[in-house]
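Data deposition worksheet. Section B asks for the primary sequence of the deposited chain exactly as it was used as input, without tags or linkers unless they were present during the calculation. Section C holds the resulting structure in token form. Section D is free text for depositor observations; keep each observation to a single sentence. Incomplete worksheets are returned to the depositor.
Section A, Depositor: J.P.
Section B:
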Amino acid sequence: MKEQLTGAYIILQFLGFLLQVLPMLFLVYTPFQPSALRFPRRRFLALFCAGAVCFYGAEAVYLGTLYYQGIGWDTVVNQANLIFAMGLFAGSLVYFLGFRMGVRGKTFLYLIIVQYGICVHILNKLINHFIDSRVFGIYPYSPETVISYTVVTLLSAPLLYRFLKYGNVQELLLVNPRALKMITFCSVAMLGLFILSIQMENNLALKIDDFRLQICLCIWMVCFLVGCVMAYGVYFGCLILEKEKEEMHLKLSSYEQQYKWMREGIEQEKRARHNLRHHLRTMNALVENGDVLQLKNYIGNCLFEVEESEERKISGNPCLDKVLSYYVGQAENRGIEIRCSIIVFEDYPFDMVDMTVLFGNALENALNACEKCGRDRAFIHLMVRQFKKSILIKIENSVCDGTGREFVRSYGMDSIDTIAKKYQGSMEAWIEQKKFVLRVVLNLED
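Section C:
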């Protein structure tokens, strides 16, 4: 009979551990793209869950051994908490080691999931607070506890999963790094307050027998939970505002670039009209002199120049040609050698605002750097390649001695990095052999 009770106890504890751990494992990687992980998501998550099942299965067997030996419940609970904490620590290491370098927001999202687990624990405790859940004399998980965990998890986990999956959480984390650090620090402080409040509630509950005071403690914990949920609402509201602010900044930068092109176009139109006046005067003089052959040659040269300028294509893609033509013309007018090697789909619908911000800042930096060098040394090399859904952009330009490092840290680099992150890509910039190199990778959607 005792062996049967021990077996039931082991199963009960095993279910309790899984109800606390597995929902957190399935939620913790939900907001991230597969490219953020070192390993394929499904395989990694399957191995992660299998390791957790084995670990907490061994813990349940160990607690069953203590139960069979008749060890006091205080010792059983202490051992269970210690081993559970060890498993949580090991799982945290696996979580952080599973990401590639440079993934932002993983700490903040980890804290959210941990605090979600604590909230489930608190709600379970509140549900069972006024129930005689120790009828069976089972610790740390009784039948009532397992049932309440199941109900709370089924009601809350799908809501959090939907928010993490479809709430554009990862995009919100691409905002100002300073804001993200501040919110992460506040989340760490909130986690500390969580743990402290639970410990204080446990100590007070053991010393208070008054039913009304027990109700006051429960109300206090409920208010604390609601306050935490509202705080995270404020957090994500701030992230949304930061994202909208960043998007407005990028659009403003794009409009400034397009306004510059418009002004340049107006100036070119004025120059074209001025040149046209001279052409008409020259042709009129040739007509008056009756020099038809020279007039024919002159008109042919003019037509050749017009047709050559109209047929000039940089990439073949209308959007990129519109963005790049201005800067190619600027480089040629300043005597800077510029070479473009672009292979992209002609009909791909690039986002005009994003391409303006990206190429505008990058080529503006290149032009500014080349102007500080002699004309015999100034050059800009632009390469763009499209591989299915990925775009590789590489821009190289000359830099003078003692200059160039400022471009790595500023001059629109933050805006370029924001665009790269928006497309789940990356940006790198460095200086080598008196040459500034910018490399950007974009992962485009259909």
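Section D:
The chain has a mean pLDDT of 80.
The first strand starts at residue 337 and ends at 343.
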